[in-house]
Amino acid sequence: MFKNFFKLIFYFLGFVVVGAVASLLIFKIINPESIGTAEAPLLIGKSISEATRLLKDRGLFLEIEGEDYDAEIPPGHIIRQDVKQNGKVKKGSSIKVFISKGEKVFTTPYFEGMDINDVELTLEKLRMEIGKITKVHSDTVEKNRVITQRPLPGYFSDNKVNLVVSLGPYDVFYRCPLFVDMTINEARKIARALGLKLIEQDEGRVIIFQKPEAGAIVKKGDSVEVTLGRGWGFWF
Description:
With 236 residues, this protein is an alpha/beta fold. 25% of the residues lie in helices and 32% in strands. The longest helix has 29 residues, at 2-30. It starts with a helix and ends in a 7-residue tail after the last strand.
């Protein structure tokens, strides 16, 4: 009889212990507070190993979300985190971070002598910009072509390029010479010296007509139309 009594007591105590353990497990599952929370540390500026150690001490994990350029934080260090410093998170969860790739460096091509329109297209493809354009006259560089650039070709952290672009030579104005009665060879020499272009009409050795007329205001680069013929005194 006593033997059965002790068995009943033993079974009862075992049932109580099992029930207590089960209740504790259920309480932990349904009550998040029993798992525990932790405050997120400041990870910005830390290396991956430093951040991993800090999080491990608080029961948290590091998750690298991606990389981005940063001029101030060195490569391999954290530049931002998804949970702010002292933010509450569950233990066992991860803090997502972005890692620095360092300062972004641009390769600046050689633009001197190029047409400004071609330069703009090239910079657009490189995801760079024209900073400032300074236009000046030049007797040696054609209009709309780059005279010089800053920065010079090479590697730079700035994505803007400043350019000095040619306006071409200064306009030189003067009165058109009298070409009538000149031989075509003489007229060609004078026109070449003044920077004028002769447009020759008909055939002959002597100029018998010109447009614009002698004394009209012309500038370097203008065209003068001349008509050729035998001229006075020529019978053949």
